[in-house]
Structure formats: structure tokens, C-alpha cells
Design goal:
about 625 residues, globular, transmembrane, Nucleotide-diphossugar_trans, Glycosyltransferase
């Protein structure tokens, strides 16, 4: 569980009253409005106010936008810093299913399914193969050999590849048909959505079953916090040089800061305003609520590019409450490639803008309080406010330079002007780097936190690129879903063609070892069968744990992952895999990560070979 500021109460949930939010919003707008008016309108930095009506109107607009932005960010910080931990519940009182939509996800799907099933034995995992061209379906079918709670839903053209929402709707109908029509049972059945690279934290179901979440009968959907699981990766771009990997590491870290600080704070504020949004990864919804959406709209998920946010808005419109849990999380891959990140964020921006069409129905529903109405309309207006700033900022600056006011030298109080300008432009975003240091649970030096804050400032202002691109796509009628390539796919080029001779002389799987084990257990063959099934299911997760630990050069994590592989392999008589793990353990002992990286493809290949032998000798024989 993550570290957060101590609030003095470890049991009670956060209780920022809507009335207080409204008061703070009003006060913030007044204070920041006065400061912004001084900087932009009356300082003289942009000319004498009252001389040119058109310029004056532009300055007033910038003043209003700036005061609203600072008020919103202040509310986020206030809510974030006084958040009180959520309370766990009993997950056995509910039935759990997760859906994983996939299109060409062979590089990550095995470890995702393995992680979900080995961490949560009571959870059913439904993989939706949306007409993949790669081995996604075959991999899932192989996992089904070891676990009857792994399910594959195959979609084929022309129905397939029509959007993530359609894939989720198809899976909903399949799952729905397997659940009793009893209303109470459907209300107690929880349907989650994971990305193909999503790992749930071990406390996820406990907190989802808590009194603030699904133990509350009026809560219809819950969103978990999102972490970047490759945030410690030293070489996020394994096929590139040092400079590109440095840029990649920074991009990955910025995404982790974004989701765990400002985005998380936004959701915590929305808990108070009743407008929590659903994300594409780590969202959980009652089956009964999906039934309600199906009846009202013909299907639970819609056609918009941000089908996740659309779902959340429709849930609120139907009168169900949404909630957010920051103490449990889902981990996903951050993107270390600028172009891939640009593609992803442009799609998100366009999808959020499309969701503005839902606001009239949401207003008519009467389910929004005043703070919720203000929050959701401000959030939805941000793309257009950004576009206005993108136009007004350069125009006002050019006018100031043309009048000889370059550098704000004409201001009467230069120091105050510069200071307040820094407050409006820098401080609101810079602070998140410092906040991240204290909540990340990692040993981050204060100088590094300052660096993160400075870079995060630049990262945030990249929205001035995403939204214009999104507007351009909308204007030209482009609404195709652009899939983001997985980082793990780059590792395929590093896999070896052949194994070393010394490894080839060792047994892949020694059946005699398992027979001896069965004899020691008084012939309990069913226990051995359970053991080999567990190994087959767990292997992708063990491999992922090793890969991530080595990528981050985490010595303890690497040693633990290798020990897990070695011990479990010895128990089964998988001598080739055990020896491969021992080889890497010797390298890990002296922290030779360069050599370990070169050995990773070998242990991956031997592990897959071992699983295939188990499947052939014990499962399909």
C-alpha cells in the first residue's frame, strides 16, 4: 500500500463536504482572480488596460481562465493531502469477473492472466480476442489447460475490430448469460476491465469490497488508481542507445507522476463532487448496473473513443454512484516513445471531447449537485480553454513586444509581476514532482523531486499539442481507434535462436522426480497434478516478475524472482530451467545486470519449453 500524508485518522473515509468544496471554489476564484487581474490587466505588462477594447477583452479572458485553473489545482491539492485511507471489506461476499480486451497482445497477455488468476483464486478471467493476427488466442487456450477459470471469447469479422466498447459489450453478454437472473446475485457480481498489460495490486479486491466501495449498495462502479509498472526500467527502449533510453525513462516517470498525483487527486475531488470517472484500466462495475445501462442504451459501453469515461457518465446519469480507491492500484506499461505517447493521448483527448454530447442528458437527470455540475463542466471545457489560451497567449505577447514591453519591463512592480507569473505558470504543476517524492514509496532524493517537478511542468504543457490534434481529427471526421504498440513487443528481437549445449544436456522435465514426490505423498497423484497445473499457470507471472526486476536493476526483486523459479523448478524436476535460474543468480550476486539481460531470453525460452512439456505429459496425455 502506498504512503500518504498522515491525516490523524486511519479508519474514517475522506469527508470533504460538498458545501466546503463550493466555499473553497468561491474563495479560490476570488483570490486568484484578483491576482490574475493584477498580473494580466493592471500591471502594465501587456499595455494600459482600457486603451484597446479588443486587447482588454483578451486579457479578461486570460484572467478568468487562469483563476479557474489555479482554483481547480488548489482544490486537487487540498483534497489529495487530506485524503483518509479506504477501509477493506470481505471480497468473498461478492462474485468477481474481469474482462481483458485484446487485439494482438501476445507479448503481454500470458503474464496478465497469470497474475490475475494466481493473485485472486476466486476471480474469473475472460479474455476477449478481437480477431488478433498473432498468437494471443493460442496463448490463452494454453493457459486454459491449467485453469478452468480462464475463459476465451473469440470475435471474428465483420463483428470484430469495431472498437473496444463493442468487444466489451460482446463479453458482457457472454458473462451475463452465465450468471443467475436473481437480482441480488447480479447486484453482487462485479465485472472489472483490465488492459492486456494490467496487474492488480494484491489488496484490490479487499478494498473494492469495502464499505466505501461495493459494500455500499448505492455504489455502482469503482475505479482504482493507476501505476506504471515499468517506472524503474533502466532501459525502457532496449533496442535504442543511451540518449533515447534517458528520454524514455523520463517519459515513463512523468506518466507515473501524472496518474499517481494530479490524476489521482482529480478523482479524489470527484469522490466529493459525485463525478468520479471510469478509466479503461482498473474499472469495476456491478453486473446489475451494466444491465441497467443495457436496458437504457441498448448496450453498456458506447461507441466513443473514450468508452470508459462515457460509461462513467452514463452510470451517473442513471442515478448510480461512482467511487475511487487510491490505496489499491492497477499497474500498466508506460510509454517510453514520444510518438506512441502522442498517438495515445490524442486518442484520449478526442474521446473525452466526444463525451461532451452526454452532458445534456446528465443535466436533465438531476443527479448532479452544484459542485459536481461545476467540476464536470470545467473538466469538459478544458480542451476549449486550452485552445483559447493557445491563440490568445501568442497574440498578447506579440502586442506587448510590438509596444516595447518585451520582458515586462514596463511594469510598475516587476518583481511581483514575475513572481505572480511564476505562480500561475510554473508552481501549480511543479509541486506534483515534490508530492510524488512523498507518496511514491521510493527513495527519491529531493533534488530528483525538483527535477521531476521541472520536467513535469513541460510534460503537462504537452496538452497544447494533444488537443489541437484531437480537434483536427474531429474536424476532419477521423474517429478510428489507433492501437498503441506494446513495449514488450520490442523484446522479441532479443530472443535466442538456440540454447547452449550444457543446457541441452539437462532434462526439461524429469518425470521420475514427480513420481518420487507422489510416493512421498502416499501416492497422491492428484496433488502432483495440482502442482504441475499451478506451475504452468504461474510461469508467466514468475517470468514477468523477473523481467521487471532486472529492468529496474532491483537486486532484492531479482534474487527473489530467480529463487522462486529455481525452487519451483527443482520441485518438478525441471533441471534445465533450474540451471538457467542458477546461472542468473550467480550473475545477480555480483550485480552484473548487463549479462543478466543477455541471459533473460534464454530463461524465457527454457521456461516456455518446460511448460509445453508439462502440458504434453500431464495435461493432454
Amino acid at each position: 500500500m502506498k504512503n500518504r500524508p498522515d491525516t490523524g485518522n486511519s479508519e474514517a473515509p475522506a469527508t470533504v463536504e460538498p458545501g466546503r468544496v463550493s466555499l473553497l471554489t468561491f474563495l479560490g476564484c476570488c483570490v486568484y482572480g484578483i491576482l490574475a487581474a493584477f498580473v494580466f490587466c493592471f500591471s502594465g505588462a501587456f499595455g494600459t488596460f482600457g486603451e484597446h477594447p479588443v486587447r482588454d477583452a483578451g486579457l479578461v479572458v486570460v484572467t478568468v481562465i487562469s483563476s479557474l485553473a489555479l482554483t481547480y489545482i488548489s482544490l486537487l491539492l487540498y483534497t489529495f493531502l487530506r485524503h483518509r485511507p479506504s477501509t477493506p471489506g470481505d471480497p468473498t461476499e461478492l462474485s468477481w469477473h474481469v474482462m481483458i480486451p485484446c487485439r494482438d497482445e501476445e507479448s503481454v497477455i500470458a503474464e496478465t492472466v497469470s497474475s490475475a488468476r494466481s493473485t485472486f483464486p476466486q476471480m474469473h478471467v475472460w479474455v476477449i480476442d478481437d480477431a488478433s493476427d498473432d498468437a494471443t488466442a493460442r496463448i490463452v487456450t494454453g493457459l486454459q489447460d491449467f485453469d478452468d477459470k480462464v475463459h476465451l471469447i473469440s470475435r471474428r469479422p465483420p463483428e470484430a475490430r469495431t472498437g473496444k466498447g463493442d468487444a466489451l459489450n460482446a463479453a458482457y453478454r457472454v458473462i451475463s448469460a452465465t450468471i443467475s437472473t436473481d437480482p441480488d446475485q447480479r447486484k453482487d457480481t462485479i465485472i472489472g476491465v483490465l488492459d492486456a498489460d494490467g496487474f492488480l495490486s494484491e489488496n484490490a479486491l479487499d478494498l473494492l469490497a469495502g464499505p466505501e466501495a461495493f459494500a455500499a449498495p448505492d455504489v455502482g462502479a469503482v475505479q482504482l488508481e493507476v501505476w506504471m509498472k515499468n517506472r524503474g526500467d533502466k532501459r525502457p527502449r532496449p533496442l535504442s542507445g543511451k540518449l533515447k533510453n534517458l528520454v524514455g525513462r523520463v517519459l515513463v516517470r512523468m506518466q507515473d507522476i501524472e496518474f499517481r498525483t494530479s490524476n489521482s487527486a482529480m478523482q479524489m475531488l470527484r469522490v466529493q463532487t459525485g463525478t468520479v470517472g471510469m478509466g479503461g484500466n482498473g474499472q469495476f462495475t456491478r453486473l446489475s448496473v451494466l444491465d441497467d445501462l443495457d436496458q437504457a442504451y441498448g448496450q453498456p459501453w458506447g461507441k466513443k473513443l473514450s468508452e470508459d469515461y462515457e460509461l462513467g457518465l452514463n452510470i451517473i446519469t442513471r442515478g448510480h454512484r461512482t467511487h475511487y480507491i487510491p490505496e489499491a492500484h492497477v499497474s500498466q506499461e508506460a510509454l517510453p516513445y514520444g510518438r506512441r505517447l502522442l498517438t495515445q493521448r490524442t486518442r484520449w483527448a478526442q474521446g473525452n471531447m466526444e463525451c461532451a454530447a452526454i452532458l445534456p442528458a446528465l443535466r436533465r437527470s438531476g443527479n448532479l449537485r452544484v459542485p459536481g455540475w461545476a467540476e464536470i463542466h470545467y473538466f469538459m471545457s478544458q480542451p476549449w480553454l486550452i485552445m483559447i489560451n493557445l491563440v490568445l497567449g501568442p497574440v498578447l505577447l506579440v502586442l506587448a513586444i510590438a509596444e516595447g514591453r518585451f520582458g515586462f519591463t514596463a511594469g510598475e512592480s516587476l518583481e511581483w509581476i514575475v513572481l505572480l507569473a511564476a505562480v500561475f505558470i510554473i508552481l501549480p504543476y511543479f509541486l506534483w514532482g515534490i508530492v510524488y517524492k512523498y507518496i511514491s514509496g521510493e527513495e527519491i532524493r529531493f533534488t530528483s523531486a525538483l527535477f521531476f517537478g521541472a520536467v513535469y511542468l513541460i510534460y503537462v504543457y504537452l496538452t497544447y499539442i494533444y488537443y489541437p490534434r484531437a480537434v483536427g481529427r474531429i474536424a476532419t471526421g477521423q474517429n478510428a481507434w489507433s492501437k498503441t504498440l506494446r513495449n514488450a513487443a520490442d523484446l522479441a528481437a532479443l530472443r535466442p535462436q538456440t540454447l547452449r549445449e550444457d543446457l541441452l544436456r539437462l532434462a526439461v522435465l524429469d518425470r521420475q522426480v514427480l513420481e518420487t514426490l507422489a510416493d512421498e505423498l502416499d501416492g497422491f497423484d492428484e496433488y502432483v497434478q495440482e502442482l504441475v497445473r499451478a506451475f504452468g499457470l504461474m510461469w508467466p507471472r514468475r517470468w514477468a516478475n523477473l523481467r521487471l526486476a532486472v529492468a529496474a536493476e532491483d537486486h532484492t526483486g531479482t534474487m527473489d524472482a530467480l529463487a522462486s523459479i529455481r525452487v519451483s523448478s527443482h520441485m518438478l524436476g525441471a533441471a534445465r530451467l533450474a540451471s538457467s535460474a542458477e546461472d542468473l543468480e550467480r550473475l545477480a550476486a555480483v550485480r552484473d545486470y548487463e549479462s543478466i539481460r543477455q541471459g533473460l531470453p534464454i530463461i524465457a525460452a527454457v521456461g516456455e519449453e518446460t511448460v509445453e512439456h508439462i502440458r504434453g505429459e500431464f495435461i493432454r496425455s
